[in-house]
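Running this now, will post back.
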Amino acid sequence: MTENVTSLPVPNNSDNDESGATDVGGVAGQRLLSFLERVERLEEEKAALMEDIKEVYAEAKGVGFDVKTLRKIVALRKMDSEKRRELDELLELYKSAVGMR
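Update: finished.
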């Protein structure tokens, strides 16, 4: 099965550089490429950090800590105290409402 692929003509633009980035339709190609490359580098760094975090949780699990509970505490520590208090009160209210006291 063959697909019909319509390719757009590449403008002959003096702003072309070695990367192939071109200004097209009011879009600054080189600047856009720069943003994309920055995001890609940050995504790579994020992946490396996520792997480091995974290793820390594995280490904590290896010495007997419950990882699910650790993750919950990390999430709670990110919240401001007022938001955390509201969450605790709502949790207690819901638990009472379903007879979990």
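The radius of gyration is 26 Å. More later if anyone needs it.
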